[in-house]
Design brief:
Layout: H1 2-11, E1 25-28, E2 33-38, E3 48-55, H2 56-59, H3 69-86, E4 93-94, E5 108-110, E6 114-121, E7 125-126, E8 129-130, H4 132-150, H5 158-178, E9 183-188, E10 195-197, E11 200-203, E12 218-222, E13 228-235, E14 238-243, H6 249-258, E15 272-274, E16 278-280, E17 289-292, E18 310-312, H7 317-330, E19 335-339, H8 345-348, H9 352-357, H10 372-379, E20 382-386, E21 399-404, E22 407-410, H11 412-418, E23 454-456, E24 460-463, E25 466-469, H12 479-504, H13 514-528, H14 548-557
Parallel strand pairs: 14-20, 14-21, 16-19, 19-20
Antiparallel strand pairs: 1-2, 2-3, 3-6, 4-6, 5-6, 7-8, 9-13, 9-15, 10-11, 12-13, 17-18, 21-22, 23-24, 24-25
The structure holds adenosine-5'-diphosphate and magnesium ion.
């Protein structure tokens, strides 16, 4: 109990840091139980992993809050934020602070036994020596205080918790209706889209113009709570966002891009809700590409390279964008989000003069403007595109939205009047059926890899001796998602090994595809929870649920990825 723990810590005060090792174990601290799963080896190692458990009777969470998956996710998110807030003033304690999105996380678990907060604790040192008395205060006084303040229902703001859960359920109910209503996304009237600064995801405080839907695109939704929200529906098909520079085009697209995740109350984007299988596509020169069919966009390279199975360690702007697009579609994206600011111009358009100067057979690239329509007719994939610099997309747009001083207007009719006659579709389909990607044996086993893959901040997965660069994967929003992706890659490697080389030889469709393996991992998460990704029992680390699309994106960016050529 607390006395034992205090005595133990006092007795090792001033000893070598390694003495902390003895702490591993379980302690009854009265108001909570403390489980010490992992003790850091030295003061500079990643912090120690501990769990604070409050039994179900004491926690007394109302049953209706956690009766469904969405309620469960929102409640644990709320509790994690409460732990983060109460531990703010206590040095060395963290729970992986949730940002503006409400994500499924491993930070707090609600089980039959009770409520469990998974924290990381930096055990105090002076030099490389144990500070036993300080540690005793931290573990036997501060931690129980956190548990009492943040994990017990009566000490929480019950109304705020209830509102948090209700909002989350409403948001997800709206998302569930988008596809059947023929919408890619919804942007609620009154939403505050701009952010405080380029490096802050908080809402702009001063001078933000609230969103207001054009009348023609206005839709409304009735929500489970009884509330009704109105705003702009972004329809399936091809939607082009135009407007002068600095009139808010990218800000709108970016909000839609982030709308695949629910946002917390007062974020400003609570009612920007996007279908959860929508993918942003941008240029990313320098990325590696393995075996992607980019022939709908690029054929007849001067090098003679076969672009039906295109691989490179150093893609150009246009080839990277083509590869990212095809990968997203093959991974199941139902709509694409593309901004001119982050696109390769030669991938997007080619003007008349250039078409006259360089004949089509001398130009390997068929620009996206010629493929955006077949992508929808052949594959059913919609596009929302920001294009302020070219009217070329008027010819193919179903809807054109103009932003004027941040206010959207439906200018579809005016744009159509300026468009050329409906541009003709290609005679033959250009997008074949999606191609199975079967990783070659050991393709996700980096040479010399001994340690589990880990996340390094949001942008990087450390995979063996290599880094997978995810900086350009813009819908990956949280370092804890990156950590989960790292764990998922290790799972994928296991699954591919289990499928065995026998299954991979023979006909091209008998092998385990990357897509099937990733679905398998997510089936397991659905059945067992996110912590199924953790290789240890006990404290699973701080993981947040990524989308399958981002797991695909990470695997596809691994420079060692090789495919079986079926
Ligand atoms: P564009 O892509 O049209 O050039 P941006 O979306 O980059 O424009 O926006 C330009 C600037 O205007 C940014 O600083 C952004 O934060 C700000 N902004 C965008 N939307 C709004 C809004 N609704 N109210 C106030 N400022 C906004
Ligand atoms: Mg822009």
């Amino acid at each position: 109990d607390a006395d034992t723990l205090r005595q133990l810590l006092t007795s090792i005060d001033g000893r070598g840091y390694g003495s902390y090792k003895q702490l591993k174990g379980s302690y009854d601290l009265g108001s909570c139980r403390l489980l010490i799963d992992h003790v850091q080896v030295d003061p500079f190692a990643p912090p120690s992993l501990m769990r604070l458990v409050v039994d179900a009777g004491t926690a007394a969470l109302p049953e209706d809050l956690i009766s469904d998956r969405h309620g469960h996710v929102a409640t644990t998110d709320y509790l994690a934020r409460a732990v983060a807030a109460t531990s703010h003033s206590i040095e060395g304690v963290s729970i992986g602070t949730p940002q503006q999105e409400v994500l499924e996380r491993t930070s707090v678990a609600i089980t039959e036994d009770g409520v469990e907060a998974r924290i990381a604790v930096q055990l105090p040192a002076s030099g490389r020596r144990v500070r036993g008395r300080q540690a005793a205060r931290l573990l036997t006084e501060d931690l129980p205080r956190i548990a009492r303040a943040a994990l017990v229902h009566v000490s929480l703001d019950a109304a705020a918790l209830h509102a948090h859960v209700t909002l989350h359920r409403d948001q997800e109910a709206l998302r569930d209706q988008l596809a059947e209503r023929g919408l890619v996304a919804f942007v609620g009237d009154g939403a505050i889209l701009p952010r405080r600064s380029g490096d802050s995801d908080l809402p702009l405080q001063q001078g933000a113009v609230p969103f207001r839907s054009p009348e023609t695109l206005q839709v409304s939704f009735d929500l489970p709570s009884g509330a009704r929200v109105a705003g702009m529906g972004v329809p399936d098909g091809i939607t082009v966002i135009v407007g002068g520079g600095y009139h808010g085009k990218s800000t709108l697209l970016r909000a839609i891009e982030r709308g695949v995740y629910p946002h917390r109350l007062s974020d400003g984007r609570e009612w920007v809700i996007t279908r959860d299988d929508v993918a942003s596509v941008r240029a990313e020169d320098g990325r590696s590409v393995a075996g992607v069919d980019i022939s709908p966009f690029i054929t007849g390279l001067p090098s003679g390279t076969d672009t039906r199975s295109f691989s490179t360690t150093n893609a150009s702007g246009s080839t990277s964008q083509a590869a990212t697009l095809v990968e997203a579609v093959d991974a199941g994206a139902s709509a694409l989000l593309i901004d001119e600011d982050t696109s390769a111009t030669n991938f997007m358009i080619r003007d008349e003069r250039m078409r006259r100067l360089i004949p089509a057979e001398r130009e390997p690239i068929t620009p996206f403007v010629d493929r955006i329509r077949p992508l929808h007719t052949e594959r059913g994939v919609s596009t929302v595109l920001v294009a302020g610099g070219s009217g070329a997309f008027f010819d193919v747009a179903d809807h054109v939205i103009a932003l004027d001083e941040y206010v959207p207007h439906d200018v579809t009719e005016q744009a159509r009047a300026l468009a050329d006659d409906a541009s003709s579709l290609p005679d033959e389909p250009v997008f074949g059926p999606s191609r199975a990607r079967v990783p070659a044996a050991g393709a996700l086993r980096p040479p010399g890899k001994t340690k589990p893959a880990t996340g390094r901040g949001r942008e990087t997965v450390r995979f063996g001796r290599e880094n997978i660069d995810l900086a350009a994967v813009s819908q990956l929003v949280d370092a804890a998602q990156t950590e989960a992706i790292a764990k998922a890659l290790d799972r994928l490697a296991d699954l591919l090994d289990q499928a065995g080389p026998a299954e991979r030889t023979g006909s091209s469709d008998s092998g385990l595809t990357l897509d099937a393996a990733i679905s398998d991992v997510f089936d397991r998460l659905d059945a067992e929870g996110l912590e199924a990704l953790s290789p240890h029992r006990g404290h699973p680390g701080h993981l947040a649920r990524p989308r399958p699309l981002e797991v695909h994106a990470a695997a596809n960016r691994y420079r060692g990825l090789r495919l079986d050529q079926g």
